[in-house]
């Protein structure tokens, strides 16, 4: 049986019970997490920051890899591979060199958009030392800090194109800000062979799930939310249900929950 059918099998077993509850769901999610483990990292853009050893290289690679993680699975991989070859053995040093990007755009981002984004990262890193220091400089709740972080990037890059507006989206009640939250999951959750455990400024319990089509479909099937609109409230309701299962680390199952759809699309080159 193809490995991606295991999600359907495990979760249908849970749903077939007369009175499924969160405790029982946790048992099934743990089975899923063990099945969809780091051996499947090849199918995820997280594999790019995982190539490196230092905090600085992983952090820069994680931001770039997360923000370009949209579209066709193989297109994401191919574009990120080009970027990391451009940045060289050290993404941190590569971004500080301020070399001009001349290797094309990606979907909504033009070649110039990509170059301006890289230049903005370089400016921020030179000013703050690293991205965590920038995030830590903002006051307020984790959500307020994330909004300030995104707005600072937009200000630095001087957003004036659709491509840059899309790349550096603004977290809001309407927008679940999936790619910003994916970046936060990677850098905040402890190093478990998947996520990186780089930042100390936030706790895993502060995170909101990166909402994509795979999470939305599964969350609705499991009754984690009844909301139809895929907005911030949808992501928040799903996260709160997962907190009832794992209070300190609600996103520990995120990699596993999206893996079925990603694997199917990865192996056939379809859409993420």
Total number of helices: 13
Q: Which structural class should the secondary elements be placed in? A: mainly alpha
Q: Largest sheet at a glance?
A: none
Distance between the termini: 22 Å
What does this structure look like?
With 272 residues, the protein is mainly α. The chain has one domain. Helix content is 57%, strand content 0%. The chain contains 13 helices and no strands. Helix 3 runs antiparallel to helix 10. The longest helix is centred in the middle third of the chain and has 18 residues. It is globular, with a radius of gyration of 18 Å. The model has no long low-confidence stretch (mean pLDDT 90).
Highlighted features:
single chain, 272 residues, mainly alpha, 57% helix
Quick overview:
This protein is an all-alpha fold. Helix content is 57%, strand content 0%. Helix 1 packs across helix 13.
List the helices and strands and how they pair.
Blueprint: H1 5-15, H2 22-35, H3 55-67, H4 73-87, H5 91-96, H6 111-128, H7 131-136, H8 142-157, H9 162-167, H10 178-188, H11 213-222, H12 232-245, H13 254-268
